[in-house]
Amino acid sequence: MKAERIVNTSVVAALVLFPLWAWMTDAPFLITLATKAVIFALAGVGLNIALGIGGLVSLGHAAFFGLGGYAMGILASHAQAYDPIFNAPFVLEGTKSMPVIWLVAIISSGLAALAIGALSLRTSGVYFIMITLAFGQMLYYFSISWPAYGGEDGLSIYVRNSFPGMNTLDPIQYYVICVALLFAVLLFTSRLARAPFGLALGAARQSPLRVKTVGISPYKLQLVAFTISGMITGLAGALFADLNRFVSPTMFSWQLSGEIIVFILIGGTARLFGPVVGAIVFVLLEHLLGGLSEYWHIYLGLLLLLIVLFARGGLIGLLAGKERSHD
After folding, report:
1. Which candidate among 54, 77, 94, 122 keeps its CA 20 to 30 Å from the CA of 270?
2. Is residue 131 in a domain?
């Protein structure tokens, strides 16, 4: 456990120092790359609550990522709309305020996760995986057939949304916002895992029958965990859409759901910083190998294969030992 804390501290130091170095050397692209890794890490931390603590393998978590992104896109698009007669800006029900957009993204994703979880959790195993995939694909095809917000072409937002007291167009300032949210969610996840709810959820993963015998419903525990997981992933989706100033149906794709699972597997399932390490490795491989070949996923697959065979605790488990912890 002490070794894992050292690894976690090193990851935190890297998240703080690397962007500062990139800013001092005037390399805004590297800051944007780090921001992307942080947002993917946030999505992974969200899924890890359901997968790592609750044992729920969801292949449809991109549904919540996409809902968060479209919440941002829809609100921002209405805020930047123009009157066709007077050519003057006006606001419908839209907003450019990040805190408001985050709240809407979290609530909409949470409600969707509650509804999807309520149905999906009546199954288990491969059936649960497939029903979450089905819901994700339903939203994917719905977004394609929604011409009001770009349909298959997606929706562009020309100016990044605002945050009080900060210039969000400055890469380092937007990075600070994203990494602060990541640290806040990591702290929340750490407390959740050690709280009575987290301990009961872990027990329900290991032995649902024993949890039932003490009067606790595994279904309710898992539903709450799935809902919280969806809310955090929705927040990540809103941040990702703001980073790119663009939303598209690909945010709902099952491939993205698979990538979020890959983040967790690379870093270490049920490890607090597992998704963070996995997201960083994924973005680094995409950046370094993507320019060499469009088939760079082959190398990612080889890495994942080696981890599954020889380091089932992920990279953090390989470095820190075999104990599982959310400290």
Report:
1. 122
2. yes
